[in-house]
Amino acid sequence: MQSLDQLYTYCRQCDIPCMSHATRVWLEDFLLQHKPKNIVEIGAAAGYSSLVMASLAQSRWWTIVSSEISRPQYKKCLFHQKAFHQYHGLQYYHIDATQSHQLQKIIPDSVSFAFVDGMKADYITFVQQLLPYMSVGNSYIVCDDVIQYHNKIQPLYEYLSKMQIQYQTIPLDDDDGLLLISL
After folding, report:
1. How far is the C-alpha of 98 from the C-alpha of 76, rounded, in Å?
2. What is the share, in percent, of the chain residues with pLDDT greater than 70?
3. CA distance linking residue 55 with residue 14, whole number of Å
4. Cα torsion through 88, 93, 116, 51, rounded to 10
5. Do the Cβ atoms of 153 and 143 come closer than 8 Å?
6. Which is nearest to 172 in space by CA: 57, 24, 1?
7. Which of 12, 26, 67, 134 is deepest in the core (most CB within 10 A)?
């Protein structure tokens, strides 16, 4: 594979979850505008989203820690990382991010941006695990596929409301969008 567009096509053809083109455009714009220092990704699948983020890091202003629970998908991440020569600042881990002791081993002390695209029913757990590590002020958690899977992530909406954490839903496609949590 020679390009991220080819990796996107491969993922779609093989039914490997990956963010939509609209999400990619939004994410690239957001990251270039905010320039976060430490990024955590939960749910790497084949590595497409983390490679998109790494491709923006030409000035090396951030590091990316990405996790994947599936061993076959984790191996695909490593393969694609090698194929795209994206080593600087990008590290993949094969962990279960719902387990705090596993996430704790890989996460930086301070996180300014997190991209969550794992199992939708676990979004609430992922966000709760990430919150203690998020930088105070000007940090963000973005969850993908929140419109299509609204019912599966309803507990997350309830938790955010209860804890009075600011968030907004950003529609991007006909049936998809992002949840932007501002901290």
Report:
1. 21
2. 95
3. 23
4. 30
5. yes
6. 24
7. 67
Is the pTM higher than 0.70? The answer reads yes
Q: How do residues 63-110 score in pLDDT, each as one tens digit?
A: 888 888 888 888 888 888 888 776 667 888 898 888 888 888 888 888
- Model confidence band, residue 28 (pLDDT cutoffs 50, 70, 90): very high
Going by C-alpha positions, the residue among 101, 151, 157, 154 that lies closest to residue 129 is: 101
Tokens of 41: 């990704």
Measured distance CA(129)–CA(104) in Å, rounded = 9
| Amino acid at the residue 159 | Y
**Residues found in the chain:** 183
Q: Using CA atoms, how far apart are residues 134 and 122, in angstroms rounded to an integer? A: 18
